[in-house]
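Please, why this fold?
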Amino acid sequence: MRTWFPWFSLLARLVLGGVMLVAGALKVTDPETAAQAVRAYELLPSSLVEPVGWGMPFLEIAIGLLLIIGFGVRAAAVAAGVFMVVFIVAVASAWARGLSIDCGCFGGGGQVAPGQTKYLQEILRDVGLLVLAGWLWLHPVSKFAVVSEPDTEPQGVTAS
């Protein structure tokens, strides 16, 4: 492992965790709007829209906090990566179907006027965050983490 890897992993944790935390925090105070944003994608059956809209912000906050404090980094990075893949697919699907919606990524969401969508920017942002999640999956050891990943500790070292 190169000496700068733990520092870059710290940066990745803070950026990815910060985005997840802020995104969840902005939505958790207005779950009706979060559900409206989920509904606008027209991907889920109506029976799942409310649970997803109400539950997703709490999961985003939990993942963000885990990444920021550095606890369970590899698992939190996988969860964040799954979220990013789902977001990329959902936004690309809306774009391909000609829907005019705001992604609702940081609150709000729902219908917008044609031409006011930002699908490409949203997909590129989420791809960048997916890259950070992949980095953290590969290199979970970072500076100032609460807990180091047990399977990434040096092997053969004994305490005396």
Notes: Residues 7-138 form one domain.
